[in-house]
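User: Could you go from structure to sequence for me? I need the amino acid at each position, not a summary. Structure tokens:
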């Protein structure tokens, strides 16, 4: 047999070749000669982490309008190689829609217009045109007012009194009042003189020794003063005849300049009522202002009796008000505080009862809803003339409960004062060369309507002004 082949001869391995990468992962190989296998070998190699390179610029947006995306990339030893974000170069155009329906005309006759609109990218989004309407027909008929209601009862059975009536209908309702033709009230007879004292005994003898007895005096105690009456009422609501109300009348003097309130008397009255009601611990509607007079600032007002036993009696409310007046001025509202710091005092007060209708009339006057009748024999200052304004008739009267009588004046009046209603001035009893004349037209007006009535008629407020001269104050 032939001899066996010689054993294979293996060559020596060569050195490892260079790594296939300069950073990160790579491979390297080596080889050998001879007749044995393997003839080559390879292995992984690494020379360290590669650096992270900067990102490239953002690419173009994927859309030319509306929402799209764009991206950028980087290489190197980084954890993220690609980055994307939303992009919107511009909003995509919206096609212009068709015109909508015409709107209704702005009027049913005469001059009027109508309009229509559309949406989208249009040259104009709305347009209007005139309506071709017939001319409006002017009515020649006059709306009729309802018949006057029957006159109400007089506020008193004798002496000065008033009565009222109302009407409605298609015209705005209003109220008028007139003086009642009453007889004079009888004057009460004076009380009889007290009996003369018995003559002294000629020879008095000592009385016999008897048990001591207390004998009540036979003379009548003097009537209580107004102050004692106020205190004696305590918190008891007085019992009066039906249709009668008890009130406590108060005169308050504020030692501030009258000009501080005369420019806007309405605002002062509102803040005064709110402040007095809060200080007295009662509802604001129980404070009724009768007049605001020049002479520092003199306010005549009344506190109406409580409607229920749960409320403080009027006398108690006045006592509490006096206590607040004597306290620090810092307790008043920001509106009243500057005035009350000048000094304030109660000049007088009195208790009386009056008819419910008269109290209601006073409330109407205080609310400023009554247009006053100009007073006879009262004139604007020389060179001035009275004019009318909102809520104020053209003539001298105690408008807005402000006394003495005054009126709004035309431009050019040298005695004019500035107020919230315009220029105004106090009136006098003497007519100047260019002064106005008293009005002969009595026009009671409520709630913005008025009606001329005979001269014999007068407003409730005239009775109130006249009764103020008989205002009994316990000073």
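Assistant: Here is the amino acid at each position, in order:
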């Amino acid at each position: 047999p032939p001899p066996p082949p010689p054993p294979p001869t293996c060559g020596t391995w060569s050195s490892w070749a260079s790594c296939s990468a300069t950073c990160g992962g790579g491979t390297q190989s080596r080889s050998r000669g001879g007749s044995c296998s393997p003839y080559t070998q390879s292995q992984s190699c690494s020379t360290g982490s590669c650096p992270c390179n900067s990102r490239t610029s953002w690419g173009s947006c994927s859309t030319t309008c509306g929402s799209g995306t764009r991206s950028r990339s980087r290489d190197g030893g980084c954890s993220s190689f690609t980055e994307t974000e939303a992009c919107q170069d511009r909003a995509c155009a919206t096609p212009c829609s068709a015109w909508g329906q015409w709107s209704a005309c702005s009027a049913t006759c005469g001059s009027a217009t109508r309009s229509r609109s559309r949406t989208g990218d249009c040259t104009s989004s709305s347009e209007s045109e005139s309506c071709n309407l017939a001319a409006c027909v002017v009515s020649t008929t006059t709306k009729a007012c309802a018949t006057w209601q029957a006159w109400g009862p007089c506020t008193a059975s004798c002496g000065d009194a008033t009565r009222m009536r109302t009407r409605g209908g298609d015209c705005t309702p209003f109220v008028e009042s007139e003086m009642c033709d009453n007889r004079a009230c009888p004057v009460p007879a004076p009380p009889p003189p007290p009996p003369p004292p018995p003559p002294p005994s000629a020879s008095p003898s000592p009385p016999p020794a008897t048990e001591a007895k207390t004998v009540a005096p036979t003379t009548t105690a003097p009537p209580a003063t107004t102050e004692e009456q106020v205190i004696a009422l305590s918190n008891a609501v007085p019992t009066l005849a039906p249709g009668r109300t008890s009130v406590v009348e108060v005169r308050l003097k504020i030692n501030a300049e009258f000009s501080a309130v005369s420019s806007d008397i309405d605002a002062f009255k509102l803040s005064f009522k709110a402040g007095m009601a809060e200080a007295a611990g009662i509802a604001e509607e129980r404070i009724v202002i009768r007049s605001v007079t020049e002479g520092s600032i003199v306010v005549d007002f009344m506190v109406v009796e409580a409607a229920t036993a749960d409320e403080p009696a009027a006398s108690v409310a006045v006592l509490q008000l006096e206590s607040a007046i004597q306290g620090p001025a810092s307790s008043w509202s920001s509106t009243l505080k500057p005035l009350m710091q000048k000094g304030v005092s109660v000049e007088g007060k009195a208790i009386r009862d009056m008819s419910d209708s008269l109290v209601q009339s006073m409330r109407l006057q205080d609310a400023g809803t009554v247009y006053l009748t100009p007073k006879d024999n009262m004139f604007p200052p020389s060179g001035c003339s009275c004019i009318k304004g909102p809520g104020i008739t053209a003539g001298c009267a105690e408008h807005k409960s402000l006394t003495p009588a005054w009126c709004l004046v035309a431009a050019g009046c040298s005695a004019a004062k500035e107020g919230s209603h315009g220029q105004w001035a106090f009136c006098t009893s003497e007519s100047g060369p260019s002064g106005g004349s008293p009005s002969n037209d009595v026009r009671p007006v409520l709630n913005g309507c008025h009606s001329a009535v005979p001269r014999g008629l007068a407003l409730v407020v005239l009775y109130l002004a006249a009764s103020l001269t008989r205002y009994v104050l316990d000073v």
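One structural detail worth keeping in mind: The first helix runs from residue 226 to 233.
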